[in-house]
Amino acid sequence: MNIAILTFEGFNELDSFIAAGILNRMKGQGWNVQITCPTAQVTSMNGVTVTAQQPLEFANTADVVLFGSGIYTRDIAKDTSILGRLQLDPSRQLLAAQCSGTLLLATLGYLNGLPACTDLTTKPWVMDAGIEVLNQPFNAQRNIATAGGCMASQYLATWVIAKLAGNGEAEAAIHYVAPVGEKEQTVTHTMSVVTPYI
Amino acid sequence: MNIAILTFEGFNELDSFIAAGILNRMKGQGWNVQITCPTAQVTSMNGVTVTAQQPLEFANTADVVLFGSGIYTRDIAKDTSILGRLQLDPSRQLLAAQCSGTLLLATLGYLNGLPACTDLTTKPWVMDAGIEVLNQPFNAQRNIATAGGCMASQYLATWVIAKLAGNGEAEAAIHYVAPVGEKEQTVTHTMSVVTPYI
To answer: What are phi and psi of B21, to 5 degrees?
Structure first.
């Protein structure tokens, strides 16, 4: 299973790395989770420089494409030299977006008619793109999912694992990363958010 | 406020970046949160290479030193060429450890007599170091805090902000990163875990 975590200049560390960390719990089952960037390196909104594991084109053949978030997403949404490199297809791929990543899903036309989740800052821009924004952390329909609020990226990762490997694997991944002493309640809550959409 | 997030070869992305992301919510108030490494670059347990923002010695004069976690912590705990570069002092610094980072705090002698939190994998090694391990996500006494389970790093970050800037700033940081539609309950729960130790 190839999974592209799209990570752009100015990225939010929480949005890319919470999802990546949880999805990598499936590494032992052969999942290949890759930080996927338009350039050889990208620097986060807080000045952390990360080396791309894959170029942007990796997304085009990946099984899952997760759009991360960041402070320059409105610029990226207008940059055809970046988005033009993406040729995605929700009939054969899971597409997931976190916070301002939802604006990119909207711009690319994949949210046509679907309500979506995003963060409070991005909300007006997503609405300007003609998308209804929900006051909830997670939403999904068929192969497209969106989440709002940095820590909601755990729901995106859970949805991906549950869709592709079943609820048991999703529960095991969340159990591992959950706080000690709060593991059962975290698994129960996370699954309650995600399972209505699987 | 200078904050060193100690990040070693084989690091766990969740443990370094959840804390860094939340603590960086205080950037506007002048906080300087830095990924601090023994080498110019470190590669995570999942193959993500990050460029150090600061060398390890930055920790020695920082106001807060947060020990991240990773897959090579047992080797690092024996490596005097790494740990010998640290000269910390809990009388003038907050020292916080996440998951296997607790083993480094123990090795350096800062947990003398204090029970601690860590992840389930690291638990036996911390016990071998003579430290009582608690079945809870977070513990702190005076200037030393420990957390267990990747997602518990939000409690470490909350504790640091509450200790140094007050509960109001800590609540605001968690409110920002919490999932949409779950913000109030996330703030209430997080503060309920942390405030008994402030």
So the answer is: -65, -45
What is the identity of the amino acid at A197? Y
Residues linked to residue A6 through DSSP beta bridges, in sequence order: A36, A67
pLDDT per position as a tens digit, B155-185: 999 999 999 999 999 999 999 999 999 999 9
| Shortest CA gap B157–chain A (Å) | 13
Q: Global pTM?
A: 0.97
Pairwise CA distance, residues B8 & A175, whole Å: 24
Domain map of chain B by residue range? Answer: 2-197
Q: Give yes or no for a contact between B8 and B26, defined as CB atoms under 8 angstroms apart.
A: no
Residue type (1 letter), A40 = A
Sign of CA dihedral B83, B86, B87, B92: negative
Query: Average model confidence (pLDDT) for chain B?
Result: 97
Q: How far is Cα B151 from Cα A179, in angstroms, rounded to an integer?
A: 5
Distance separating alpha carbons of residues A194 and A188, to the nearest angstrom:
10
Contact list in B for residue A186 (CB cut-off 8 A) is: 151
Two tokens, residue A93:
């791929």
CA distance A15 to chain B (A): 9
- The topology (CATH level 3) of B2-197 is Rossmann fold (3.40.50)
Q: Which residues of B touch A49 (CB under 8 A)?
A: 50-51
- CB nearest to A151's CB, from B35, B47, B178: B178
Residue pair A150/B177 in contact by the 8 Å Cβ criterion: yes
For residue A7, the chain B residues in CB contact (below 8 A) are: none
**A113 pLDDT band (50/70/90 cuts)?**
confident
Check if the beta carbon of residue B99 is closer than 8 Å to that of residue B71.
Answer: no
Beta-bridge partners for A33: A3
Would an 8 Å CB–CB cutoff place A20 in contact with chain B? yes
Enter the tokens of residue A186.
């975290």
SS3 B125: helix
The interface residues of chain A toward chain B in range 89-128, judged by CB-CB distance below 8 A, are 117-120
Query: Which of 38-97 (B) contact A at CB < 8 A?
Result: 41, 45-51, 53
